[in-house]
Amino acid sequence: MARRLPVHEQFYSFQGEGFYAGRAAYFIRLFGCPVHCPWCDSAGTWHPDHLPRKIQRLDVNKLAESATATPAEFTVITGGEPAIHDLSELCEVLKKANHSVHLETSGAFSIKGDFDWITLSPKRWKLPLEENIHIADEFKLIVDTPTAIQEYDSIVNRKNVPIWLHPEWSRHKDPIILNTITEWIKQHGAPYRGGWQLHKNYGADLLDPGSAPLAPLGGDISLGY
């Protein structure tokens, strides 16, 4: 019997972040996350005030069929924290359909599955495992304070893959955060790169009816979540 996974939403859009930014992608956002970042823009995957009334558990074959029915260049498995689930079978089914599989994770849990690309975004509330730091293809550091880059850089400690510096979205117009990122890149150069969430500017994800409504964490939709 095929594995069933708890799915918060699945939709066809484009990747708005990182190395593959701007490319057509199918997103499977799994439910559940024990990390609980206070500014999470996927609050519906864990926040008690924004939990959906019903969580679908979907067969991995059905998920793969939905993904491969689109012209997407790859499927992104995200969350929540997707690595709390065993993703081996979903990866296997997608690969049998000649579909590339990407993972977006905090790196705090053992990764079960064969992925073509791993984006690791460390979170101070539960730090990544050393084993995951070594297999990441890129890092995404969320800059929510002026000292966040130094904090996460000491954890990542990798200099041979891209390290994207993203302003935390509720502060994406904050000159202190933006200038901190700019000056770090100017002073350190590669592999640091300025990051952004292009899909939010476009509202790209929300154009697909499979995308879940944004959860207004804190009751302020102007913050972006």
**What's the level 1 CATH class?**
Alpha Beta
Profile the largest sheet: 9 strands, mixed
Q: Which second-level CATH architecture applies?
A: Alpha-Beta Barrel
What structural category do the secondary elements indicate?
Answer: alpha/beta
Task: Name the overall outline.
Answer: globular
| Spatial sequence of strands, sheet with the most strands | 3-1-2-4-5-6-7-8-9
Distance linking N and C termini = 37 Å
Please trace the helix and strand order, writing H or E for each element: EEEHEHEEHEHEHEH
Using the CA coordinates, give the radius of gyration.
17 Å
Low-confidence stretches: none
Which percent range fits the helix content? 10-25%
Classify the oligomer.
single chain
CATH topology: the name is TIM Barrel
- Can you give the mean pLDDT? 93
Number of helices: 6
Total beta strands: 9
The CATH homologous superfamily is called Aldolase class I
Distinctive features:
225 residues, nine-stranded mixed sheet, alpha/beta, TIM Barrel
SSE layout:
Blueprint: E1 4-14, E2 24-30, E3 56-59, H1 60-68, E4 74-78, H2 88-96, E5 100-105, E6 117-120, H3 130-135, E7 138-143, H4 148-156, E8 163-167, H5 175-188, E9 192-194, H6 198-202
Parallel strand pairs: 2-4, 4-5, 5-6, 6-7, 7-8, 8-9
Antiparallel strand pairs: 1-2, 1-3
Helix pairs in contact: 1-2
Any overview of this molecule?
This protein has helices at residues 60-68, 88-96, 130-135, 148-156, 175-188, 198-202; strands at 4-14, 24-30, 56-59, 74-78, 100-105, 117-120, 138-143, 163-167, 192-194. With 225 residues, it is of the alpha/beta class. The chain has a single domain (4-223), classed as Aldolase class I (TIM Barrel, Alpha-Beta Barrel), CATH 3.20.20.70. Helix 4 (148-156) links the parallel strand 7 (138-143) and strand 8 (163-167).
